[in-house]
Write a structure and sequence with these properties.
Layout (H helix, E strand, L loop, with lengths): L3 H28 L4 H21 L2 H18 L7 H22 L9 H10 L5 H6 L18 E9 L6 H13 L2 E7 L12 E8 L3 H9 L4 E8 L12 H4 L28 H27 L5 H22 L1 E3 L1 H4 L2 H12 L2 E7 L4 E3 H22 L3 H6 L5 E11 L2 E8 L6 H10 L5 H5 L3 H8 L20 H10 L3 E7 L3 E9 L4 E9 L2 E6 L3 E6 L6 E3 L2 E6 L2 E7 H5 L11 H4 L11 E7 L2 E7 L1 E11 L3 H6 L2 E6 L5 E5 L15 E2 L1
Parallel strand pairs: 6-8, 13-22, 17-19
Antiparallel strand pairs: 1-3, 1-4, 2-3, 5-7, 8-9, 9-11, 10-11, 12-13, 12-20, 14-18, 15-16, 16-17, 17-23, 18-19, 20-21, 21-22
Helix pairs in contact: 1-2, 1-4, 2-3, 2-7, 3-4, 3-5, 4-5, 10-11, 13-14, 14-19, 16-18
């Protein structure tokens, strides 16, 4: 057993990937039972997971994955895929393995009792023939010559001798088997692939059913390294073979004579194109990059004031290089949203069966990339939206048939780039959102009076669903009804600097759309000052800027309004709305912030921003220009007091709060967006 402390992070990361791939492969087999490639791949994934676990010494995981292998081997040898009960058992095994990995990650060891699941798997697996049992005796897995070969396949025998300096023969044998599996199915081996962790010899043999030629297998084997020699030859035809147990003895005792010609140039498999890097190192790299950007900005400011020949050109070159480096560092942190999307096929399958619904899940744009921090935080919001779509949105087959719809509903998760953002949509073709039904529920729960409920439009109806404590579920279950779903989604999305909108067409479906920044590392911002305090407003939220001098302000119910473009926009005082003026108290509510306790003379400009789907004008003292800023998280005490999504260090060393625009306009359900001019 190897040193777990050194290899545990890599083991956990790869094991989780294997489990995710297994879950998807099982669902593919269920959808397409005759998918031969999926059948082959699922066996290899399970075998790799078992080999990794054995090397790390996790015997309970090995026991369970070994029993799963038997079922997957049955899958490869039969037509028609696996029965539904087998899919259910394998899904239970995946859940158990995930729990075991979480226990290992938490330092508690394998939280797994494999015996009940192993017994269920044994009931599914076909008994082996006497020849197969003989072949599995000891640490040898002999080829099954009764196996029906696919057209174009050959059975090749690979014999390799490990070099004297090889210190870890078991690892090298495992690597050799994995390299050969790229070319086809490994049907035999010495040592047996199941027993590779116990191997301590020098000779490794493998039988591969493949369409590749001898040279391709030889080159892949040599690329493993630490081999004294390799020979690849076609295995004897089944009719030429006597006792299968004698095959090992018939192979030559040495393969040293099969070394490649020293003068021959041998192409090797290229090195891996990816490297696993600890997330903390990436965070440290990003922090240092942020420091570099700040120093670059300071140098640019100094160069603009100094009259040194050649300095401006040198600063420009420095700026170009550092900007390219910043983009590269940012891209390193980008990961595809696929890592989140792939959680949902299993969830949709299980919940749809539980709810008695037929659902087709479609995943679009899974290769769209986002900052790792954003992707890590996306799981819970998307989980809420998917569960809501399954529970509240999509109908049962009978209900859909009665509504002249196909009995199978469609749930689509999609992602796409939109400028400096990524838009993620959760769309269903279910019953949609009914304003009348929502209004009645709001009245019954005391959220609205009857008149306000009758005046609900689609926008206000969707906004009502985000109200804390509001739910349309008739009773509380583990799926819904507690009223903590959609408001939690909005809070999570806003914490990421994004926004969420909900649209619907009654009877046709609904769509929740999340608009998220590509990265939380840096933003393009408009710098403003309010009472000599600097603030940064994300540039993508800025609609326009307006000079307040000479503009006639209006007042409705004591709240100042800015006439602009045929409408009256709420005009907020920057000091009160942002909650950071030392002379003024923090407003207790948005209504208090709009109470008009400032004069136009105190504020020279208004910045019109997009806030929670509305437009709001923020009165500020001055505009300081556009800047590219590296953002930082704020202490909780500061973020709770001020409408700020983060902080940024300015070139002069000062701190600017990044304005959380959505906090500037959070209307109550049914509140109008503005007053007509």
């Amino acid at each position: 057993m190897i040193d777990q402390r050194e290899y545990l992070p890599a083991f956990l990361a790869e094991a989780r990937e294997h489990l995710q791939e297994l879950g998807l492969a099982i669902l593919r087999i269920e959808a397409a039972p005759d998918d031969r490639l999926a059948s082959e791949g699922i066996f290899r994934i399970a075998h790799s997971l078992k080999g990794m676990s054995a090397t790390m010494g996790y015997e309970r995981i090995v026991a369970l994955t070994h029993a799963m292998e038997d079922v997957f081997e049955l899958l490869r040898q039969r037509e028609g895929g696996l029965p539904p009960d087998a899919i259910d058992v394998l899904s239970a095994c995946l859940d158990a393995l995930e729990t075991a990995l979480e226990g290992i990650a938490a330092g508690g060891g394998e939280v797994l009792d494999p015996e009940p699941l192993v017994e269920r798997l044994r009931e599914l697996a076909r008994e082996r023939t006497p020849a197969q049992e003989l072949a599995r005796d000891g640490d040898v897995l002999l080829p099954d010559f009764t196996r029906a070969t696919v057209e174009g396949e050959r059975l090749l025998h690979v014999a390799a001798e490990l070099a004297e300096e090889c210190q870890m023969p078991a690892v090298r044998a495992f690597m050799l088997f994995e390299a050969l599996r790229v070319h086809g199915e490994l049907v035999g081996g010495v040592p047996a692939p199941d027993a590779v962790e116990r191997f301590s010899g020098r000779r490794v043999e493998a039988w591969v059913a493949t369409r590749s030629d001898e040279l391709a297998l030889a080159e892949s084997a040599r690329a493993v390294g630490e081999l004294a020699g390799v020979r690849v030859a076609e295995a004897p035809a089944p009719g030429d073979v006597g006792d299968p147990a004698d095959i090992v003895q018939e192979c030559p005792a040495s393969v040293s004579s099969c070394d490649t010609d020293p003068g021959r140039s041998v192409s090797r498999t290229p090195a891996t194109a990816t490297v696993r890097v600890d997330a903390e190192r990436l965070d440290e790299l990003l922090h240092l990059m942020g420091e570099l950007v700040q120093h670059r900005t300071s140098v640019e400011a100094l160069a603009a004031e100094a009259a040194v020949p050649g300095l401006p050109q040198a600063v420009q070159r420095l700026a170009r290089t550092s900007h390219a480096l910043q983009e590269t560092v940012t891209r390193v942190r980008m990961v595809p949203v696929e890592s989140v999307f792939l959680r949902f096929p299993r969830l949709v399958r299980d919940l749809s069966q539980r709810l008695g619904k037929q659902v087709e899940l479609r995943l679009e744009g899974a290769d769209t990339e986002l900052d790792r921090t954003v992707v890590d935080a996306l799981g819970d919001p998307l989980m809420h939206l998917v569960r809501n779509a399954l529970d509240h949105g999509l109908e049962t087959p009978a209900e859909r048939t009665a509504a002249d719809k196909p009995p199978t509903g469609v749930l689509e998760l999609s992602a796409r780039h939109a400028g400096g953002h990524v838009v993620i949509s959760v769309r269903d073709d279910g019953r949609g959102i009914d304003p009348v039904a929502i209004g009645h529920e709001a009245v019954a729960r005391g959220f609205l009076d009857v008149d306000a409920a009758d005046a609900l439009d689609p926008v206000a109806t969707a906004e009502l669903l985000f109200a804390p404590g509001f739910s349309t579920a008739p009773s509380t279950t583990d799926l819904s009804g507690r009223g903590v779903g959609m408001d939690a989604v909005r809070e999570s999305v806003r914490a990421l600097g994004g926004e969420i909108t909900l649209t619907s067409e009654p009877g046709r479906g609904a769509c929740a759309q999340l608009r998220l920044p590509l990265t939380l590392a840096s933003i393009a911002a408009l710098l403003v000052t309010v009472d000599d305090l600097p603030y940064a407003i994300p540039l993508d939220r800025v609609v326009r800027t307006v000079r307040l001098e000479g503009l006639p302000l209006r007042t409705v119910r004591g709240a100042p309004l800015l006439p602009l473009g045929g409408e009256l926009l709420p005009l907020l005082d920057g000091a009160e709305a942002l909650g950071a003026s030392p002379e003024r108290p923090v407003p207790a509510s948005h209504d208090e912030a709009r109470s008009g306790r400032f004069s136009a003379a105190e504020r020279s400009y208004a910045v019109v921003v997009s806030a929670a789907g509305r437009r709001v004008a923020l009165a500020v003292s001055a505009l300081a220009g556009q800047r590219e800023l590296v953002t930082r998280r704020l202490p909780r005490a500061v973020s709770q007091r001020a409408a700020a999504a983060g902080g940024a260090v300015l070139p002069d060393g000062g701190i600017a709060l990044v304005v959380d625009c959505d906090c500037l306009a959070a209307p109550s359900p049914g509140q109008p967006e503005g007053v007509p001019a």
